[in-house]
């Protein structure tokens, strides 16, 4: 599950920054343009819209304070917009009035496709290549290349990754030992077998496994079948049916389960009613908040070649002044630094976007979460994938959870699954044609 997405009532889930382009009529898009970016020589305010709450928001405020102390000419004005649904709605309602947009914002790339098409976003490549406000080049940023690629729209680097998580397998080693599961599942076939054993040996009291994000389940299932998420997918075709039927069989027989009235699978998991589940790595935060001190769990790679990278990026809007853009990118660079990413990851449970941090002993020995000690192994096992930013991909992705829910509920209740799949196919195809 992408818990952060679901908790924020968004189907698409992580951070995007929105800023602003240079004051010329031409948006900077080349290395030579990086020489035109001004130094921040006067007091400048950068408005930043975000959807962070709780510990995430307090940590962000702390990072802003540290940045302002080091850059006294720059003020970062944080404007919390509610959850991600609220943030997306605020961006959408403000796009028709560009002068009211902030300099930077959190966002998913799919939210901003039309903004990019209408030249309302800043291509950040010149800022990356500028040694004063940026790094001089992409490699010097130490940002994971797959995450940078995930923040591109139409091939341009409009975003910089920030609050990121990945889909992982979280399991209960006590239940594994109790029912004779000696190996953490490394393939989907092993996941099914282990789930069946646990369900049968527990006299149907403990479901073997579940998938928190049904949209991610389908997209990753198709990617692991060799097919990217696009309108070319045949929802009733052989590959798609393999993905659908895998979960349907588990729901029919009881060894798999999906989120139900409890909404999030960490709830039955921490109540020892579920042995393992696939979810966002950020779900660790909620497991720790709701489980007893004696509760044991561990984290492993998703049992497939690909896993989903999730979370928003940082984007910049083009209506800002040249000075605001330069100041905004200095702040973005600060947030991506080794020091900031270590603090952010340790406080929030998000994974570092900075490759140096994942190698840092201070991160790997972090005791609050299980992921840090295992992240390098997980990233060696799983390749990162993100939903492509193409026409209607965001709209179609948002339909996948209700489509899959209808199919799986039919399986649970011994209703007509084929009818539900046909209805899902109609909705899936229609979503690609909006």
Summarize the model shown.
Helix content is 44%, strand content 13%.
Describe this structure in words.
This protein has helices spanning 3-7, 54-70, 84-94, 113-117, 125-129, 145-150, 173-178, 188-201, 214-224, 238-253, 266-270, 284-290, 322-336, 338-348, 355-359, 361-364, 371-381, 393-412, 417-431, and strands spanning 44-50, 74-80, 104-107, 159-161, 165-171, 207-211, 256-257, 274-280, 298-300, 306-310, 313-316, 383-385. It has 434 residues and is an alpha/beta fold. The chain folds into 2 domains: 3-164 and 311-359, D-Maltodextrin-Binding Protein, domain 2, CATH 3.40.190.10; 166-309 and 389-431, 3-Layer(aba) Sandwich (D-Maltodextrin-Binding Protein, domain 2). The strands form 2 sheets. Strands 5, 6, 7, 8, 9, 10 and 12 form a 7-stranded mixed sheet that branches. It has a 5-stranded mixed sheet with strand order 2-1-3-11-4. Mean pLDDT is 92; it is low at 1-32.
Write the layout of secondary structure elements.
Layout: H1 3-7, E1 44-50, H2 54-70, E2 74-80, H3 84-94, E3 104-107, H4 113-117, H5 125-129, H6 145-150, E4 159-161, E5 165-171, H7 173-178, H8 188-201, E6 207-211, H9 214-224, H10 238-253, E7 256-257, H11 266-270, E8 274-280, H12 284-290, E9 298-300, E10 306-310, E11 313-316, H13 322-336, H14 338-348, H15 355-359, H16 361-364, H17 371-381, E12 383-385, H18 393-412, H19 417-431
Parallel strand pairs: 1-2, 1-3, 6-7, 6-8, 10-12
Antiparallel strand pairs: 3-11, 4-11, 5-8, 5-9, 5-10
């Amino acid at each position: 599950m992408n818990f952060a997405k679901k908790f924020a009532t968004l189907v698409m889930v992580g951070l995007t920054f929105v800023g602003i382009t240079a004051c010329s009529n031409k948006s900077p898009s080349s290395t030579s343009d990086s020489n035109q970016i001004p130094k921040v020589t006067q007091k400048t305010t950068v408005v930043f819209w975000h959807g962070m709450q709780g510990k995430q928001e307090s940590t962000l405020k702390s990072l802003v304070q540290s940045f302002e102390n080091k850059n006294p000419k720059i003020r970062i004005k944080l404007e919390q917009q509610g959850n991600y649904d609220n943030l997306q709605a605020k961006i959408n309602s403000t796009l028709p009035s560009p002068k009211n947009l902030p300099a930077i914002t959190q966002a998913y790339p799919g939210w901003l496709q039309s903004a990019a098409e209408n030249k309302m976003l800043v291509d950040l490549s010149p800022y990356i290549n500028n040694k004063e406000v940026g790094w001089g080049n992409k490699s010097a940023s130490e940002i994971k290349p797959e995450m940078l690629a995930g923040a591109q729209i139409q091939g341009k680097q409009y975003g910089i990754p920030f609050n990121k998580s990945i889909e992982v397998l979280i399991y209960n080693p006590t239940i594994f030992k109790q029912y004779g599961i000696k190996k953490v599942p490394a393939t989907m076939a092993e996941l099914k077998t282990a789930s069946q054993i646990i369900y049968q040996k527990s006299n149907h009291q403990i479901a073997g496994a579940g998938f928190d994000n049904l949209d991610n389940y389908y997209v990753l299932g198709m990617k692991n079948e060799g097919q990217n998420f696009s309108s070319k997918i045949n929802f009733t075709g052989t590959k798609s049916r393999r993905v659908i039927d895998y979960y349907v069989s588990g729901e029919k027989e009881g060894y798999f389960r999906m989120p139900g009235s409890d909404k999030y699978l960490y709830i039955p998991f921490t109540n020892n009613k579920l042995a393992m589940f696939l979810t966002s790595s950020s779900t660790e935060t909620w497991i720790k908040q709701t489980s007893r001190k004696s509760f044991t769990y561990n984290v492993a790679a998703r049992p497939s070649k690909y896993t989903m990278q999730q979370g928003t990026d940082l984007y910049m809007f083009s209506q800002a002044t040249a000075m605001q853009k330069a100041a905004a990118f200095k702040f973005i660079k600060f947030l991506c630094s080794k020091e900031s990413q270590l603090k952010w990851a340790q406080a929030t449970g998000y994974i570092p976007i900075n490759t140096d941090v994942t190698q840092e002993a201070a991160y790997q020995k972090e005791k609050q979460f299980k992921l840090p000690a295992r992240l390098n192994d997980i990233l060696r096992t799983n390749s990162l994938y993100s939903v492509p930013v193409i026409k209607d991909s965001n709209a179609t992705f948002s339909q996948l959870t209700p489509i899959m829910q209808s199919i799986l509920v039919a399986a649970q209740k011994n209703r007509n699954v084929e009818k539900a799949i046909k209805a899902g196919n109609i909705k899936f195809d229609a979503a690609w044609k909006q």
